[in-house]
Every structure is written in structure tokens, then in C-alpha cells.
Amino acid sequence: MGQASTSSAARRSSATRTGSSTASTPLAVSRLRPAYQQVADQLRELILNGSLTSGDRLPPEADLGGNFGVSRSTVREALRVLASQGLVKTVRGTTGGTFVADVEPDQVSDYLETSIGLMSGSDALTLGDILEAREMLEVRAAGLAAKRREPRHVEALRAAIEREKHSRGRSVKFREHRHFHGIIIEATGNGLLTVMTEPVFRVLQSQFLSPGVPPEFWVQVDHEHETIVDRIDAGDSEGASEAMQAHLSRIRDAYHNV
Ligand SMILES: [Zn+2]
Question: What pTM, to 2 d.p., does this model score?
Fold first, then answer.
């Protein structure tokens, strides 16, 4: 697969590049796409492959039109598409122009939350899928956290447990619960994991948290969290993963399809 896409990429010149998803398709879908979409696709590819990076100024519309062999209005339409996807932004004034946008992790998380939220509950993305993906990420993450945690992470985790014990109400309880899990992800030192897991936590809370969770459930959660932190604090990677697996398996009951 990697081999095939590399060779097909080599056959394409940069001027006719239309995006990797259509590269090996015998039917040339790109011919059916409007010109502005093709321009947007090519600019997007330059951004995604790192040829253009955050803050880079794009050439003026007239120059881009000349490069692509399309009109200025086609270029403008393409830039509108990219702007709507948050990939470029236009700044007015003498020092203005169109720039490759900075992407903040929060923006990505918000976008993912919206997308996962819209898909969730349908056949495309069931509650079981979300819980399964969460376990795949978090069980390994707990093990990594045990290896990489700094003292501040352990302190923050213990403080979060104390707050959980004293909080009241379903949504507050859950927020503290989410926060606890977020610190473990943070302790891995892997920023992408934070971006990927935070929206999942939020969708689980907003869409699937069962209304009838009994108080004993939260007492048990506190207990399990303590075990997880003890293992992380001890640098026991395997133990932390096991404790997280046991915890996540048990709390599955707190979620259901609404
Ligand atoms: Zn938990």
C-alpha cells in the first residue's frame, strides 16, 4: 500500500496533484470537481504536507490564479473554502493578505467534539465504539503516565480525588472525574493524546451519562482512582494499566444510549 501510493505520487507532477485520496482511483474523480475545489485541494495538501506552515503568507490572488491557470474569482472561492475549514485566515489592510492559520489544540478538540457528538449514537459510531476507543487509549496512557509523571501530576491527581469526594451533583461529579482522567493523559507528555481524548470525555458526559448513577458508584470510583494514582506514583506501569482497565470496565455501566 505504502509502496503503491509512493510510486503513484511520483508519477504525478506537482501541477496535477489532486490529493492522495484520489491517487489510486481509476476513475478520475478530480475531473468532476469544480476548479475552485481543485485549487483548494492542492493548497490544502501544501498545508498538510508542511510545504506551507502556520503564519506563512499565501501569494496574492492574481499570482495564485496565474499559477493554477484559473481566474481570481476561482482562487477567491477556493480561499473561502479553506477559511471555512479554519486552514487560512485573511487579514485586511496594507500588511494584510491571506495567511496559513495557527491551529490551537483547543480548536481541534472543539471540532472533534462536535463531529463525534454528531456521529455518536448512530450506527456509524455507537456508545460501544466510543468506550472501546477510550479504553484503548487510556489503559496504555496510564502505563505511560507511571513512567513519565512528574511530582506535580501526582499532586494534581490526589487533589482531584479530594475534590471528587467532596463534590455533589451528577454533572459536577462527572466534571471532576473527567478532570482526573485528563491529568493522567497530560502526564504522558503526549499532546496529541490530550487532543484526542478530551472531546471523547465531553461527548460521553453530555450524551451518554446515565441519570440514575447511585452514590455508591462514586464512592467506588474514588477508591479505584486512588489505586490508579498509587500505581502511577510508584512508577508501576503495568499496575497502573491494570488498575485503569479494571476501572474503565466497571464504569461502563454508568453510560447508556439515551
Ligand atoms: Zn475514573
Answer: 0.69
Which of 55, 72, 100 terminates a domain? The answer is 100
CATH number of the CATH domain containing 84: 1.10.10.10
Segment 95-107 mean pLDDT: 85
CA distances from residue 241 to 69, 79, 101, 126 in whole angstroms, order as listed: 56, 46, 38, 24
How many whole angstroms from its chain centre is CA 30?
A: 28
Summarize pLDDT for 196-209 with one digit per residue, the tens.
Answer: 898 888 888 877 87
21 CA to centre of ligand 1 in angstroms: 39
Shared domain check, 219 and 185? yes
CA of 229 to the centre of ligand 1 (A): 11
Report the percentage of the chain scoring pLDDT > 90: 45
How far is residue 248's CA from residue 255's CA, in Å, rounded to a whole number?
A: 11
Query: Domain span at residue 90?
Result: 2-100
Q: How many angstroms does the Cα of residue 108 sit away from the middle of ligand 1?
A: 24
